Amino acid sequence: MSTADLGLPVEVPSTALFTDQYEFTMLQAALKAGTADRRSVFELFTRRLPEGRRYGVVAGIGRVLDAVENFRFDDGVLRFLRDRRIVDEPTLRWLSDYRFSGDIWGYPEGEVYFPGSPVLRVEGSFAECVLLETVVLSILNHDSAIAAAASRMSSAAGGRRLIEMGARRTHELAAVASARAAYVGGFDSTSVLAAGFRYGIPTVGTSAHAFTLLHDTERDAFRAQVDSLGRGTTLLVDTYDVAEAVRTAVEVAGPELGAVRIDSGDLLLVAHRVRQQLDELGAHDTKIVVTSDLDEYAIASLAAAPVDAYGVGTQLVTGSGQPTCSMVYKLVARAGSADPGAPLTAVAKKSSGGKLSVGGRKWAARRLDGQGVAEAEVLGTGPVPDALADRQLLVELVKGGEVVAREPLDAARDRHIAARSGLPMSATQLSRGEPVIPTEYRM
Amino acid sequence: MSTADLGLPVEVPSTALFTDQYEFTMLQAALKAGTADRRSVFELFTRRLPEGRRYGVVAGIGRVLDAVENFRFDDGVLRFLRDRRIVDEPTLRWLSDYRFSGDIWGYPEGEVYFPGSPVLRVEGSFAECVLLETVVLSILNHDSAIAAAASRMSSAAGGRRLIEMGARRTHELAAVASARAAYVGGFDSTSVLAAGFRYGIPTVGTSAHAFTLLHDTERDAFRAQVDSLGRGTTLLVDTYDVAEAVRTAVEVAGPELGAVRIDSGDLLLVAHRVRQQLDELGAHDTKIVVTSDLDEYAIASLAAAPVDAYGVGTQLVTGSGQPTCSMVYKLVARAGSADPGAPLTAVAKKSSGGKLSVGGRKWAARRLDGQGVAEAEVLGTGPVPDALADRQLLVELVKGGEVVAREPLDAARDRHIAARSGLPMSATQLSRGEPVIPTEYRM
């Protein structure tokens, strides 16, 4: 089976090839050396948050579960690996019935994270775990970057509605994942239909400047739109003159007009003028939607403007200056032999050039102060202290190869709002700062 | 058919849903108003290059052709649009046998572009053209951003080999497109196997720190790797102590060792030391590969270091600070009726907030000076001046709905090198600057 049958603009047969070649060559060498079956623990974490960010947002866990389930080798993939001589015949045989059979624990989707947080912990044989590195990092690095930007924007927007509309400014499938991550981070809807189709996210959209330009007059365009989409539609009022367009819009749709959209100009000024004009025309319930290169700072600057909803594109899908996270996937412990009972030894690359790794299989907990506000991210390798036992962050996601933690996307969205509100108040300051709580190690 | 059958971590049935909802609502309203069949011309262009960039690189044209061919509505998609009440029944009937039947002209892949360059010109009925907006922008905005970064890096690298290895830092399918765009921009190979599978790009990779940590000693790890992958392999030498690792590497593999990889530390200093050590050990032909948060500036700074190849990850797949382009898709001309012979009228949104659009169906040509070096990007709506007739940039990509311009990826890569070398020499300066040639309008 190939994606050619689907009409996708990509053609890849499973998630197994969203993988760096070296995962496969390491597998081959370990199989030959007899070390491939050593029990291993990999952790996915970040050494630092993006510069100036106060917290991270875990997003993409649901997509990771999909990717792990679908990491399979069909004939087409095996033939490719053979024809290109990526790996040898014993390795191909091993891959042909690959199925991840280990355990995965992780931070649940929507949770916040900090430097060192073991966002994902993957355990099994070296062979089965190492192969997952690339695709798992791709998903979490991308989705968490978008969700972090979304979270800042949703803080800045207060209770006002946020529409994700950045599909045109990112890869067409990254766009679908971005809409999903934005929803986790607090957005309300998206423009991109594939995200509605795949994830059930509410979709919105009415018209662009092209629709006005297609018609002989702006009035013709508005009438055509209202005739077809109803008076509750959103009319775009900045193709020519905004004041004239607003007047025409209310004449055509009446005061029941759903909303007007402003996509250019000094939004603060224009929103005030348009609100006043709408009110004078009796269109008190007509909403104002603004869209035009918004980011969290622009949203915050419009807090005092009569704006009902923000549409955010470029800055959302590019992570508002931080388009990726720096999550890594590191071997932190492994057995000294393939014996299933062999004890685990902590391992870590020697620190050099600031690339700190802390060996050992870790637990994670968030310690609260007397008011119930988070005060530290505590990571350790020994027994969990009693005081932190019920504040642990890792949940079981995959058990013996079976996914055990599916949940609706709304659960992740709700979790994010709860997790963010459990942080010190300075977490939602937009200005640059340090992580809002420190990471402590108990080794 | 659904991507669920493929094990992809996304489930979308065709490119038709990589589309903003408003394209469909505009279609519905135009169908009802009788304006949907007006002959229309859309142009895709950018008002400005990313800040400080001197030229843009067109990438993704091949993927656009795939997306247009596969923009179809099967039962699953139509059911979604009906169930979610995105559009009405007449529109669903119209969509059910949608197939783009118009013409597309564009800059060929690998060509350079400047502000205003009509990178793509899409002609047909308003209805059939407007639907393509989102997916076409997604592809070209993403792929061109990556190719632009790749082009700067390939200039900086001189003739040294460049390996794309950023899959883990971007969406898993954006990674495949990034590898493709990087190849167009001058990279030699990629780490991500799906890009080899789908596009035939050479793939490379041998081992990570995890492989060394899996084994009881570094010597065990190197021996396992050489035993399996041969003496020509690349050994990673910075897990513990670099000098000791290099000594062990040559002891294990002999002077036939293919390469060593350095992934941390002061690369300039370390590369010199490692080269000297390798030479002292008689491993004169052993190459040095460096990888560690490289960008075009870091690559340039290593010009005097004994480095044979650069592996670039994060900064490549995030466009080296410019993860997207600001390309837009605008209606520039349309007929006043559905009559096939009706003349086209130029249209444009009123300039406001800097959002300049220039109406009219345009040609584009690159004027050369007496030495054959580009001196201006000339755009016009009237007849093409004789002096520019053979310097026109737009080529026919789709004719009457049929793709007519497939080409191997190497053709785009070669074209890029030729186009870049036809620019004034200051084009490849890494410092920030203005577009290296001006855009002139002949209207």
What features would you describe in this structure?
The structure is a homodimer of 443-residue chains. In chain A, the strands form four sheets. In chain A, strands 13-12-1-5-3-16-17 form a seven-stranded antiparallel sheet. In chain A, strands 7-6-11-10-9-8 form a six-stranded parallel sheet. Chain A has two domains: 3-131 and 326-442, Alpha-Beta Barrel (nicotinate phosphoribosyltransferase), CATH 3.20.140.10; 157-318, TIM Barrel (Alpha-Beta Barrel). In chain A, β12 and β13 form a beta hairpin. In chain A, α3 (75-83) runs antiparallel to α4 and α6 crosses α7 (172-184). By secondary structure, chain A is an alpha/beta fold. Chain A has helices at 21-33, 61-69, 75-83, 89-96, 126-130, 133-156, 172-184, 193-199, 209-214, 218-229, 242-253, 267-280, 296-301, 314-317, 409-421, and strands at residues 39-46, 56-57, 103-106, 112-113, 120-125, 161-164, 189-190, 234-236, 259-262, 287-291, 309-312, 327-335, 344-346, 363-368, 374-380, 395-399, 402-403, 439-442.
Give a short overview.
Chains A, B: Its EC number is 6.3.4.21. Chains A, B: It is an enzyme of class 6 (ligase). The structure is a homodimer of 443-residue chains. By secondary structure, chain A is α/β, with parallel strands linked by helices.
Write the topology of this structure.
The structure is a homodimer of 443-residue chains.
Chain A: H1 21-33, E1 39-46, E2 56-57, H2 61-69, H3 75-83, H4 89-96, E3 103-106, E4 112-113, E5 120-125, H5 126-130, H6 133-156, E6 161-164, H7 172-184, E7 189-190, H8 193-199, H9 209-214, H10 218-229, E8 234-236, H11 242-253, E9 259-262, H12 267-280, E10 287-291, H13 296-301, E11 309-312, H14 314-317, E12 327-335, E13 344-346, E14 363-368, E15 374-380, E16 395-399, E17 402-403, H15 409-421, E18 439-442
Parallel strand pairs in A: 6-7, 6-11, 8-9, 9-10, 10-11, 15-18
Antiparallel strand pairs in A: 1-5, 1-12, 2-4, 3-5, 3-16, 12-13, 14-15, 16-17
Helix pairs in contact in A: 2-6, 3-4, 6-7, 7-8, 10-11, 11-12
